[in-house]
Each structure stands twice: as C-alpha cells, then as structure tokens.
Design a protein that fits this description.
152 residues, seven-stranded mixed beta sheet, 3 helices, 34% strand
C-alpha cells in the first residue's frame, strides 16, 4: 500500500473547504461518472458518531470513505457501516482505497462491520476480512453485494 496520510474528522470538525471537497468528489464520481440518481445527501454525514476519512492531495480530496454507527444492527451484530468509498479518477489504481480501509479496520476492527459493495470492488473488501452474504442486488442501478466482517 502507498504511504499516505489519512485525515479523520467528525462532522463538527470539518471545515467548509473540506466539506466542499468531499461533496465534490462524491458527486463527481457517483452522479456524473456513475450516473447514480439516488439521494447522495442522506442526512447521515452529520450524525455525531459519523467519521469521515480521506486522503488529501494538492487538488483536494483524492479518496474518501465514511464510517457510520447504527443503533440497531441490520445484519448480525454489525453496528458499524462503511460506505461512500470513492477515489478520484486521476488517482485510481494507486491503492488509496486500501489505505483508507486499513485505517477504518484498524480503528474499528474490534466491532463487527457491514458494507454494501458495488460487485466489481468486492475483492478489495475481502482482503480486509469482509465476506459477502445474500444474493447480488441492484442498488442505484448497479449490482451490489452486502458484506460483513466479524469483530475481533
């Protein structure tokens, strides 16, 4: 994995420039590139337990993910939900998503975790102990798999 610094902040710690860069990256990839037409701003980003992790570069945010906490687990004992994993087009293939995932697992690996993966990227998450469960389903027009990682 590449040597990168990961920034982690809660909603209240984000600057307006950081928030703009996060939202710009997410909309550029999810809306413009992938043409996902479902709600991006789901009111989960500003929850007190939400964590925003990203890798900055001279153009803003190169890669991002968020970790949420659900009071009620939707699968087994997984209260931690990893999502909105995104890497800017010009930085793909450098292992930045792996760096972010390693950080998320290091911080929260004692807890069971859940994610909804676009099917093509599921092998990346499997490297971090996530196992698919259930059938492939379509979410936001793309094939997805639900994946679970037991806490240690």
């Amino acid at each position: 994995m590449p040597e990168c610094s990961v920034v982690r902040k809660s909603w209240g710690e984000l600057t307006t420039d950081e928030l703009y860069s996060i939202l710009k990256l997410r909309t550029d990839v999810f809306f413009v590139e992938q043409r996902i037409d479902e709600e991006e701003l789901d009111n989960r980003d500003q929850e007190p337990t939400a964590e925003h992790l990203w890798i900055p570069d001279d153009r803003g945010i190169a890669a991002y993910l968020r970790v949420l906490w659900d009071d009620e687990a939707s699968h087994r004992d997984a209260h931690r939900i990893v999502g909105r994993v995104v890497v800017r087009a010009d930085r793909r293939g450098e292992g930045l998503a792996q760096v972010l995932f390693a950080e998320a697992v290091e911080r929260h690996g004692r807890d069971a975790m859940l994610l909804h993966a676009q099917e093509y990227i599921a092998p990346l998450y499997a490297k971090f102990g996530f196992e698919p469960f259930g059938a492939v389903y379509v979410e936001a027009g793309l094939p997805h798999l639900s994946m679970y990682r037991a806490g240690v």
